[in-house]
Amino acid sequence: MTNWSVILNIAKTHLLTKMKSTVTASLGVTFGIGAYITLVSFMTGLNQMLDDLILNQTPHIHLYNEIEPSPKQPVNLYGDLEGAFNVVHSVKPKQSQRKIHNALPILDYLKKDPNVKGATPQLRIQIFYLSGSIELGGNLTGVDVMEEARISNFRDYIVSGSPEALRNLDSGILLGAGLAKKMSLGVGDRVQVSTVTGGIFPLKIVGIYQSGIADIDNIQSYANLNTVQRISGEAQNYITDINVKLNAISEAPAMAQRLEKQFGIRATDINTANAQFETGSDIRNLITYAVSITLLIVAGFGIYNILNMLIYEKMNDIAILKATGFSGRDVQLIFMSQAIIIGLIGGFLGLLIGFGLSVFIDQLPFNTEALPTITTFPVNMQFRYYVIGIVFALLSTFVAGYLPSNKAKKIDPVRIIRGT
Amino acid sequence: MMKYVLEARHIDKHFKKPVDFHVLKDISFTVRQGEFATVMGKSGSGKSTLLYILSTMDTDYTGELYLNGGLVTGKSHQILSRIRNEHIGFVFQFHYLLSEFSVLENVMLPGKKLGARTEEQIERDAREKLEMLNIGYLAEKRASRISGGEKQRVAIARALINNPTILMGDEPTGNLDSYNAENVLQIFTRLKEEQGLSLLVVTHDLDFAQRTDRIIEMEDGRIIKS
Fold first, then answer.
1. The model's pTM
2. Residues from chain A contacting residue B55 (CB–CB below 8 Å)
3. Which of A88, A163, A271, B217 meets the CB 3.0–4.6 Å disulfide criterion with A149?
């Protein structure tokens, strides 16, 4: 039978009379947990931001026609030379069109798929931006701008102007931020573009696009799909790329393989395209947890030390308790509950400090050219981390308390009382 | 036939460290209900060792020990703790109070552990015991702030809180001046006469022993007179 109120009362008295040690031990846990919460929130916030930076611009599945040589050269099809050792020099890419064959039916098909959140057609062409006598090479992508804004963070990257402005103006263009700076152009100005075949078209700047990646912002601009089709002199069904966004990103690899087989085009999924990116996130998470666990182990040793000293100090008390009818288990529970109380108090304070620091960091201004949508340091506050934090705190204090309390349990009262 | 509260049968004990030493040799004796017995002997005669076996704290012996007619030998530590709590009151040479607690809390602690009464009842009983020992006014004081004689009386009150079958003392007056020693002896005698409590006390003090019902004399691990 365990009489909790007596045990907790003794534990409380010990803790209160040894206020200094209690505070020291609790602070160890507090700092450990506080640092964990702050670190994990900040680190995962940064990870999330970096992931978004890349991943939001990468569709879950990207469909396009690859320019590549035929896997089967004509000589292999010639029956008389079958089984012979054929050597073909100067292999050229297969003569085919860049556009996706039957792009509009494919789009319809994708939009009806329940797994698909959205599919947008794109036409990517090479152009020159003309600024006086200077020609800047670049890309112009024709998009269905409203659909693009719906399924990706496209809107976040338009630093001035809006997607609606592009939709409303047929001859509008969202100019890359780097280009706008180079050519000293702003919203409302006109820019002339010329295609590789030579035609010159004036377009009105309705917005500035800034992805945060300088290499992209220096060449990339967006216009309406049919405008780009007109500029390049192609028909309404001329589409070079289809970007697919799924409801569940995990289905991307399987679906990409299926689409590749079904339509005979190239389909890359996000996991293949960004495999190295995942690795980076994982390693950063690993570092966060390694640092936090180290801090908690240090705090655990602090508790272990303090409880050990307390038990040496309380030898006589332990002997008395045992002589008057407290069992070894009761004595162990007294010291265990002290450890757990320290863990709880220190842990909760740590959560509060971690939360406070996270909020503080979240307020700090963080302006960078590369990230137009970010104004403060990114912090990822998740309830999950707080649960993990308190579980960590209790676990480490439990382990730190168990060993000394087990010693207290085994103390032989006769030896203490007789003074041998 | 008189009822035995404590009965020891053929108890033997060896100290194994540093060398094998036969401390207790075939000890058999009984304590009757309401008897005030003292154990006397020179240092090293094994009297304290015997007391700790009888108090159930030391379980490393051979032979049998009965308390209130029930066999105690071989019971688990958990059960022995319970038996100590309920049936045995213990007073040591050094008063051994929990110094961070008040006098009242010290006295109440074994009662709370037993959990047979409500907290209010235990507190009332504890105050009653303190009153009986003429130290009621100390109840709220910290245990570390009272004198040696007072501490010993508090320890007696603590030993009595669960109304034990037997009260054991290991040189309870050994650390007290003659005035306080006399006081403790009178308390013990009164407990025996008024409440019929059985007492078993180990002492060096011949004057003390001669005023009790019975002297058990030990020498070299044997009872030579009882």
1. 0.71
2. 323
3. A163
